[in-house]
Amino acid sequence: MTPVHFSFSSAFTLGLMGLAFHRTHLLSALLCLEGMMLSLYIALSLWCLQLEATMFSAAPMLLLAFSACEASAGLALLVATARTHGTDHLQNLNLLQC
Amino acid sequence: MFYVEILSMLLLVLGLVAVASNPAPYYAALGLVLAAAAGCCVLVGHGGSFLSLVLFMIYLGGMLVVFAYSAALAAEPYPESWFDLSVFSYVVVYILGLMVVGLCFFEGWYDGFWVVDELKEFSLLRGDFGGVALMYSLGGWVLVVCGWVLLLTLFVVLELTRGLARGALRAV
Amino acid sequence: MNPYVLTTLILSLGLGTTLTFASSHWLLAWMGLEINTMAIIPLMAQQHHPRATEATTKYFLTQATAAAMILFASTMNAWTMGDWNINQISHPLATTTVTLALALKIGLAPMHFWLPEVLQGLSLTTGLVLSTWQKLAPFALILQISQNTNPALLTTLGVMSALVGGWGGLNQTQLRKLLAYSSIAHLGWMIIILQFMPALTLLNLTIYITMTSTMFLSLKIMASTKINSLALAWPKTPTLTTLIMLSLLSLGGLPPLTGFMPKWLILQELTKQDLPITATIMAMSALLSLFFYLRLCYTTTLTTFPNTNNTTSPWRLKSTQITLPLTITIILTLMLLPITPAITTMF
């Protein structure tokens, strides 16, 4: 395991753990998702840089485009939640619990 | 150079710790900015100057501005920073966990820089410039799909955020 | 919703699933999954009431997390093994992560908590799309990686899903949550057989999609989302009420109906593979599911709604909804069992 491999894996895992364990705000959850996407971008870029796989270096760009789409959808959901629930606290999303 | 590399990797991970430890979004966005800047440094150190530029311009310049703007809308009188007890305990737990995992893998670590690029001093263009440009020629259909998704996202955002009749946007 | 926007969204739903079906590269498959998620989000939040928004938010968070985990696992695989092919994924950590991520995406048992809540917040049409079409793309990936995943993990997921799907539905009065738990239980049956005979998984998926489409379409015609409103169905649409009872029994897997076929074949294959204990647990967990299907049957057809003697029965208006899809799926739901020999020769 190289230091690079360790750093982006642990960055992704940290983002995932932060998203899964304890979130107060919906915005923090979206920021965690963005952190995961950031570490994925770095992972894909480093893969094609280290292996000199020139053809593959378009992949991080595609990933960035898709994660931008995802981020904008998440922020739109933030706006919609703020409209309907009056707040973005994740605790308030409890209308549908069993 | 080697130390700068290691330092920026460390900063990348620490930035994610800052995001993951559940501070107020205000500070979490700051942590993500730190992580993205460190990621740019890592990419430059590995020779991906164009990818690093894209990360800097699109990620830091585009997306994070929106996130920071949304976080700044948060009506929190006392946002939790990393030095409040609840957040700080998360920071400590995450960093300890990282150290334990890192020590577990410590024996198996080998030198990370296996870039075999003997012509580095003689080439004007790095591979990633050409590789990204290949998206316009060989990856034509993927480009079309990407454009379609951006159009789709436009509609998604419009449909989700519409609704003047459903009340004004209140404090986030 | 504007028809142009609706067309764009539905075309994108098709595009996402097709992209995942057609790809052999993990990145492209991930792109297809993302398109699928993005395209269904405005359909889910169409009504803009708080429950719909909440369900959409929960769906978005789970699906985005699962998609990111899939891409991360494939990146790990590429870093260690250097291969981006979907069916060549071989690093044990990567296969486990990707299996768990796909389980999160379709809602298998330890990761199932979003499914009943999300389904409860949607309209019946969107719920139908969510529980049929949205399952196809993850299943395309699951079937491709089925030979490389950890068998113990698959068995655990399958058994837990069947049990949780049965147990969770026992206490529900909301029909969409019941259908969500029935979905979890059926997915458990699909996953338990995956490592031995992927063709049976596909067969079970097809039949499940037919049966659940029948249920959603007929509930949509009767516009009922709770058990007590089902009890009023008998004076309104007598034929449909009878057929609903039969399709519920088919979902539960009783013999003369279609739903018996996948359960029969799966149990047979499990015993052939010398796993009698797993087969017994699965059969017993089907009883749990059968209990709430039977309770639904009981309220729908075998009881009359408590009312006084001089109540007039409601005026029976001719329905203006299209019934052709329901007709087709209901026939398939009830009468496919006799073609079992023809299907077994195809394996």
UniProtKB/TrEMBL annotation, chain A:
GO biological process: ATP synthesis coupled electron transport
TM annotation in the entry: 26-49, 61-82
Compartment list: Mitochondrion inner membrane; Mitochondrion membrane
Alphabetical keyword list: Electron transport, Membrane, Mitochondrion, Mitochondrion inner membrane, NAD, Respiratory chain, Translocase, Transmembrane, Transmembrane helix, Transport, Ubiquinone
Biological function: Core subunit of the mitochondrial membrane respiratory chain NADH dehydrogenase (Complex I) which catalyzes electron transfer from NADH through the respiratory chain, using ubiquinone as an electron acceptor. Part of the enzyme membrane arm which is embedded in the lipid bilayer and involved in proton translocation.
InterPro entries listed in its UniProt record: NADH_UbQ_OxRdtase_chain4L/K (IPR001133), NUOK/Mnh_C1-like (IPR039428)
Recorded family membership: Belongs to the complex I subunit 4L family.
EC number: 7.1.1.2
Gene Ontology annotations for the cellular component aspect, listed alphabetically: mitochondrial inner membrane; NADH dehydrogenase complex; respiratory chain complex; transmembrane transporter complex
Any Pfam family: Oxidored_q2
Name this protein carries in UniProt: NADH-ubiquinone oxidoreductase chain 4L
Main location: mitochondrion
Species of provenance: Scleropages formosus
Catalytic reaction(s) noted: a ubiquinone + NADH + 5 H(+)(in) = a ubiquinol + NAD(+) + 4 H(+)(out)
GO molecular function, one term: oxidoreductase activity, acting on NAD(P)H
Automatic annotation (TrEMBL), chain B:
Entry-linked Gene3D superfamilies: NADH-ubiquinone/plastoquinone oxidoreductase chain 6, subunit NuoJ
Signal sequence coordinates: 1-21
Name the UniProt record assigns to this protein: NADH-ubiquinone oxidoreductase chain 6
Protein's membrane topology: Multi-pass membrane protein
Family: Belongs to the complex I subunit 6 family.
Cell compartment(s), UniProt: Mitochondrion membrane
Functional note: Core subunit of the mitochondrial membrane respiratory chain NADH dehydrogenase (Complex I) which catalyzes electron transfer from NADH through the respiratory chain, using ubiquinone as an electron acceptor. Essential for the catalytic activity and assembly of complex I.
Major site of localization recorded for this protein: mitochondrion
Chain segments annotated as transmembrane: 53-75, 87-109, 129-158
Record field: catalytic activity: a ubiquinone + NADH + 5 H(+)(in) = a ubiquinol + NAD(+) + 4 H(+)(out)
Domain of life according to the entry: Eukaryota
Keyword set, alphabetical order: Electron transport, Membrane, Mitochondrion, NAD, Respiratory chain, Signal, Translocase, Transmembrane, Transmembrane helix, Transport, Ubiquinone
Keyword Transmembrane helix: yes
Cross-referenced Pfam families: Oxidored_q3
Amino-acid biosynthesis as UniProt keyword: no
Lineage: Eukaryota, Metazoa, Chordata, Craniata, Vertebrata
GO molecular function, one term: NADH dehydrogenase (ubiquinone) activity
InterPro entries noted in UniProt: ComplexI_Subunit6, NADH_UbQ/plastoQ_OxRdtase_su6, Nuo/plastoQ_OxRdtase_6_NuoJ
Enzyme Commission number: 7.1.1.2
Catalytic class of the enzyme: translocase
Cellular component per GO, a single term: mitochondrial membrane
TrEMBL record, chain C:
Pfam families listed in its UniProt record: NADH_dehy_S2_C, Proton_antipo_M
Topology of the protein relative to the lipid bilayer: Multi-pass membrane protein
Keywords: Electron transport, Membrane, Mitochondrion, Mitochondrion inner membrane, NAD, Respiratory chain, Translocase, Transmembrane, Transmembrane helix, Transport, Ubiquinone
GO BP annotations, alphabetical order: mitochondrial electron transport, NADH to ubiquinone
MF annotations from Gene Ontology: NADH dehydrogenase (ubiquinone) activity
Entry EC no(s): 7.1.1.2
Reactions that this protein is recorded to catalyse: a ubiquinone + NADH + 5 H(+)(in) = a ubiquinol + NAD(+) + 4 H(+)(out)
The NADH:quinone oxidoreductase/Mrp antiporter transmembrane domain, residue ranges: 23-288
Entry-linked InterPro entries: Complex_I_Subunit_2 (IPR050175), NADH_DH_su2_C (IPR010933), NADH_UbQ_OxRdtase_chain2 (IPR003917), ND/Mrp_TM (IPR001750)
Main location (coarse class): mitochondrion
UniProt domain NADH dehydrogenase subunit 2 C-terminal: residue ranges: 290-343
Segments passing through the bilayer: 60-81, 93-115, 152-171, 178-196, 202-219, 240-257, 277-294, 322-343
Top enzyme class: translocase
Cellular compartments per GO CC: mitochondrial inner membrane
Cellular compartment(s): Mitochondrion inner membrane
Cited PANTHER family: NADH-UBIQUINONE OXIDOREDUCTASE CHAIN 2 (PTHR46552)
Family under the similarity heading: Belongs to the complex I subunit 2 family.
Stated role: Core subunit of the mitochondrial membrane respiratory chain NADH dehydrogenase (Complex I) which catalyzes electron transfer from NADH through the respiratory chain, using ubiquinone as an electron acceptor. Essential for the catalytic activity and assembly of complex I.
Name recorded for this polypeptide: NADH-ubiquinone oxidoreductase chain 2
